[in-house]
């Protein structure tokens, strides 16, 4: 081999060794990732769940749909809670149109269907536009009477805990969270179903958004003109 | 003297390796700083990129309302109908997954009611059953509908941040064989393409959409 030959081969050998080295790194990383992925994904899911010890409460507020009301019914029946309070939400566009009943009417319908014991259901005064307003009311209620429980799906409990901690001033006590399971998604294998992946991805993005967003900014509300402008070009 | 003069040539290039890493770290830091400094512009550009829909400029045969936002999408479709740009409105009827607190009705049923209230006559509305509850499932059903009913042009109405993904799915599922599928953006409550990164709602929606766009790009969903 001449000197020229070896000089010509040198870049090829360098590229080859670089490729081999990186292939080895990537292969090892892939193997490690594959070995730990169940643990890793479980931990990613668990970060969304705020662990809470079981405790008796006096007033229940349901924040998550029908399953929440079923859980509230069980707690009242078992004597672990005394009453359920319902709240009004500001009506959305579809509610104003008369297509959907109000949030309060829907809640009352579920309460009737589940046959809550008489005298155990009350309604909070006022109308609440944002979840923060409901949480502020619950915190105020906690200061006044104590033992308020918020019934929520476990997958958004960390977000609600952080939200309440931010809203509570001077380290006020915050209401107890009462977690309900999603029957279709288990924390131990959420990534095995399409619904589980959607749920965890959505709640992670919400948690992330809560942590990094500018809390004071509010986007302008939509007007009927916005829909007209979006539909057809040049229509006034 | 000789030893000292030969030392730099013989010793391994440790200082230069260190310098190389310092340069790399410096470049990374500079890139991160540039990204941070121009974050508003980048976020604005990303919002504009995701918003691939446009208002209609000419009439179409059918308007298809995708499921997912009852509060805005039917309102845009009704405006298209009222402007005389379409005679048939097609409503997505996905599986019963999101009707937990909708008074026992499906989202598709409620969309029909919204259209009725907004003045779209019953004769002009048709339901399209969706076998798989996803945007891809809706595109597959739309492709079949177009083929079976010999439809010339279709306008798909969805939320503004969702329209780029729809364009990709239209291409992936070969929905648009005649080049006659137009995507129309419906505005969204709580955020817009030019301010999404400033509000909590917008960040949540756009971060999730970014994940979904990536999954469509990689054919994972």
Derived from helix and strand composition plus strand pairing, the structural class of chain A reads alpha/beta
What is the radius of gyration of chain A computed over CA atoms, rounded to a whole number of angstroms? 27 Å
Q: Given the C-alpha coordinates, what overall shape of chain B results?
A: elongated
Distance between the termini of chain A: 82 Å
| Percent of residues in helices of chain A | 40-55%
The strand order across the widest sheet of chain B is 3-2-1-4-5
Oligomer: heterodimer
Shape of chain A: globular
CATH class of the domain at 59-183 in chain A: Alpha Beta
- How many DSSP-defined strands of chain B? 5
Order of helices and strands of chain A: HEHEHHEHEHEHH
- What is the number of helical segments of chain A per DSSP (H or I, 4+ residues)? 8
CATH fold node name of the domain at 55-193 in chain B: Rossmann fold
**CATH homologous superfamily classification of the domain at 59-183 in chain A:** HUPs
Query: How many individual β-strands of chain A?
Result: 5
Mean pLDDT of chain B: 89
What is the name of the CATH superfamily of the domain at 55-193 in chain B?
A: HUPs
- Strand order, main sheet of chain A: write it out: 3-2-1-4-5
Name the helicity range of chain B. 40-55%
* Rg value of chain B: 25 Å
Report what the structure shows.
The complex is a heterodimer of chains A (236) and B (221). Chain A is α/β, with parallel strands linked by helices. Chain A has a domain at 59-183: Rossmann fold (3-Layer(aba) Sandwich). Chain A is built from 8 helices and 5 strands; from the N terminus they run H-E-H-E-H-H-E-H-E-H-E-H-H. Chain A has helices spanning 3-46, 65-77, 93-96, 103-114, 131-144, 157-167, 194-212, 224-231; strands at 59-62, 83-89, 121-128, 148-153, 176-180. Chain A has a 5-stranded parallel beta sheet, with helices on both faces. In chain A, strand 1 (59-62), helix 2 (65-77) and strand 2 (83-89) form a beta-alpha-beta unit. Chain A is globular, with a radius of gyration of 27 Å. With 221 residues, chain B is an alpha/beta fold. Helix content of chain B is 49%, strand content 12%. Chain B contains 8 helices and 5 strands. Chain B has helices at residues 2-10, 14-37, 39-50, 73-82, 107-117, 135-149, 163-172, 200-217; strands spanning 62-65, 88-93, 125-129, 154-159, 181-186. Chain B has a 5-stranded parallel beta sheet with strand order 3-2-1-4-5, sandwiched between helices. Chain B is elongated and about 80 Å long. Chains A and B meet through helix 2, helix 7 and helix 8 of A and helix 4, helix 5, strand 5 and helix 8 of B.
